[in-house]
Known about the structure:
The structure is a single chain. This protein has helices at about 15-30, 45-55, 65-70, 85-95, 110-125, 140-150, 175-180, 185, 190-205, 330-345, 355-370, and strands spanning about 5-10, 35-45, 60-65, 75-80, 100-105, 130, 155-165, 210-220, 225, 230-235, 240-245, 250-260, 265-275, 275-280, 290-295, 305, 375. It has a 9-stranded mixed β-sheet with strand order 16-15-14-13-7-12-11-8-17. A 6-stranded parallel β-sheet has the order 3-2-1-4-5-6, sandwiched between helices. It contains 11 helices and 17 strands. About 50% of the residues are buried. Helices cover about 35% and strands about 25% of the residues. By secondary structure, it is α/β, with parallel strands linked by helices. A hairpin with a 4-residue loop joins strand 11 (about 240-245) and strand 12. The termini are far apart. The structure holds alpha-L-sorbopyranose. The site of alpha-L-sorbopyranose (SOE) has 4 residues, from loops. Alpha-L-sorbopyranose binds near residues 164 and 194.
Amino acid sequence: MTKKKLNIGLIGYGFMGRTHSNAYHRVKNFFDVPYEPVLQVVCGLVEAEAKAFAEQWGYKSHTTDWHKVVEDENIDVVEICVPNNLHAEIAIAAAKAGKAICCEKPLALNVSEAEEMVKVVEEAGVPNLVSFNYRRVPAVTLAKQLIDEGRLGKIFHYRANFLQDWTISAKVPQGGMATWRLDIKAAGSGVTGDLLAHCIDTAMWQNGPITDVCAMTETFIKERMHAETGKVEPVGIDDACTFLCHFDNGSLGNFESTRYARGHKALYTFEINGEKASIAWDLHDLHRLSYFDHSDESIVRGWRSIHVTDSDMPYMDKWWVPGLQIGYEHTFVHQVADFLQNLAEGKSTSPDFREALATQYVCDAVLTSAKNKKWETVKKA
Ligand code: SOE
């Protein structure tokens, strides 16, 4: 049966542009999606690079002007994969033009931009999604399922880390194509918006709203060369951030993120301790979910390592056979599969802009708390 074509316009051809493009290619082969995605146009800063990207990833055309993508009547979905400071302007224009939107995380540079984005997409009634992809690692989705089934009972503790080590050298510049995440003007914050936002999104999805936070941040390297100006400039981002929090359900949270944990490249881990059971997960071994069930007979009770590959586990019936693995890129395929399904029903996909605003509120409270050295209440989205 021929499916309705869905025309995709991608803005940004960096790392995230590749993950999203790959997802659109793969999704139709593995999932029974209601549309046939057509990669129509890619937009990026440098013409030759946009052209090369279009050729490599099968986009029909390329441009260096994002307005052309948003204003193109032919485009159904706008994919926003550019630095954070460009999210709001593009998303607002796309919503006003009636496009469905998938925006990279974090939603915006700051809370006021994020609030405006939510207002505009909701007024326009366009389906929207923010790409917090780790929710769609099968083991992470399974963890959510186990919690929702009440297997952990009352939850006492939620702790999460996201550790990297790629900015330890003072020679790493700030700004520019590859290192915009170090430039406060482009990123809005450092590890808080870039890495902790992932942990916060997963945590609130699994364990409910965060009500208040107490944080500390540090900028270990105070000045870096700016890739665009060539000048040594003060660094405005947080290199590391640790915070404590309360969840609405009474449990305690403990979060840490840094780009200065020598030896760790992308060590995203979480552990949740409940009255009846505990769960732990580690991105470096993403197929495994550690699970401890106190109701097991005591002589065989212990931490089990569940290999999340069986076909009754989230998303896994679409891939290979039990025991065979998938990886990081598949989280984006799952995201697109869910997005297309919801799109056909005229719905947004979780986490939508409003849920991402809730994460932005936590990030904002974290940064304010670190600055003021005080507990901060988190605004409700
Ligand atoms: C930063 O290094 C980064 O690429 C984040 O921007 C991503 O969101 C994260 O998934 C991996 O690390």
